[in-house]
Amino acid sequence: MRRELHQARRLLERMERDLKSLRDLLERLEASESSPATPASDRKSKREEIPADPTLWAQQMEALWKDFQERGLEAVEAFIQQHTVPFLVAFLHACSIPIPGRGKPSKRQIREELYQRLRERRALERPVFTPRPLEEGKASEAESPHGSEESKEKGEDQDPSESSYSLWGP
Questions:
Q1: What is the total count of domains within the chain?
Q2: Are 115 and 76 in contact (CB under 8 A)?
Q3: Which segments within 15-164 are labelled E, that is strand?
Q4: Is 70 inside a domain boundary?
Q5: Is residue 79 in a domain?
Q6: Is the CB of residue 87 less than 8 Å from the CB of residue 80?
């Protein structure tokens, strides 16, 4: 019985020490809560509001596209630096651009993917054939694909489909 009494006293002493530690911790937390070092309103929030409206995403993309046409990679880098990774992931998702990497992508991966997609869009929107500058002597021929007006009156250089003569009769 003496042994049990001794164990009970040791347990009580441990519990008192733990209780004292808990009270000290509680006092420190209450003191820090009542007078924070930096007020919550002064702290800059890392969270960025992610809009749900698809028209806002389209406006963001068009603004980025116009800026990209003027400044190129600098525009993409500025856009990446202005926004958080969750915002950029939502932006890529809303614009149907694949999200790079596995899990949470880095800003570098997002920049590379976005830059690649904007370069592809620029290449696709360029005209395929550009007209060559006309030479002075060939300018009159290029204006009319079937020759000049004078040759049409004479019946020369006419397209057979435009002539009154037909192989199959009148």
A1: 1
A2: yes
A3: none
A4: yes
A5: yes
A6: no
- C-alpha separations of 140 from 73, 131, 147, 163 in Å: 44, 16, 8, 22
Residue 154 falls within a domain, yes or no?
A: no
Query: Model-level pTM?
Result: 0.47
- Reply yes or no on whether the pLDDT at 130 is more than 80: no
- Lookup: tokens for 117: 């997609």
Does residue 68 contact residue 78 with C-beta atoms inside 8 Å? no
Question: Is 60 exceeded by the pLDDT of residue 116?
Answer: yes
* pLDDT given at position 165: 52
Residue 115: is it exposed, middle or buried by C-beta count within 10 angstroms (0-12/13-18/19+)?
A: middle
101 found inside a domain: yes
* Residues 64 and 74 sit within 8 Å (Cβ to Cβ): no
Helix-helix angle 107-125:85-94, to 10 degrees: 30
Cα 5 to Cα 1, 8, 13, 131, distances in angstroms: 6, 5, 12, 104
The pLDDT assigned to 168 comes to: 62
Choose the most confident range, by mean pLDDT, from 7-16, 24-33, 42-51. 7-16
Domain that holds residue 114: 54-125
Mean pLDDT of the chain: 76
